[in-house]
C-alpha cells in the first residue's frame, strides 16, 4: 500500500493545494479587502488538509 492509495491522503493533498492557491491573492500588491477575507478559508483548508494527511496512517502523527 502506497501513500496515494489512501483516500484521506488524496483529499488532504487537494485541500492543501486549494488552500495554498487561496493565499496568493492576499500576498499580491494592492490586495483588496475581499482577498484578505480569503485568508480565513485558506487557513482552514490548509489545517484540515494537514490534519487529514497527518492522521492517515495507523502510526502516531508526528
Describe the structure.
- The protein is an all-alpha fold.
- It has one domain (3-54).
- The chain is 68% helix and 0% strand.
- It contains 3 helices and no strands.
- The chain has helices at residues 7-27, 33-37, 39-54.
- Helix 1 packs antiparallel against helix 3 (39-54).
- It is elongated and about 45 Å long.
- The model has no long low-confidence stretch (mean pLDDT 88).
Would you spell out the secondary-structure blueprint of this structure?
Blueprint (H helix, E strand, L loop, with lengths): L6 H21 L5 H5 L1 H16 L8
Rounded mean pLDDT score: 88
Number of separate structural domains:
1
| Low-pLDDT windows of residues | none
Distance from N terminus to C terminus (CA atoms, Å) equals: 20 Å
Fraction of residues in H or I helices: 55-70%
Largest sheet: none
Radius of gyration, whole Å:
14 Å
Structural class: mainly alpha
Count of alpha and pi helical runs: 3
| Secondary structure tally: strands | 0
Shape call: elongated
Order of helices and strands: HHH
Strand % is under 5%
Keywords: Membrane, Transmembrane, Transmembrane helix
Pfam family, one: DUF8178
Structure summarized in a few sentences:
Keywords: Membrane, Transmembrane, Transmembrane helix. By secondary structure, the chain is an all-alpha fold. The longest helix has 21 residues.
Give me some keywords for this one.
62 residues, mainly alpha, 0% strand, elongated, DUF8178, transmembrane helix, membrane, transmembrane
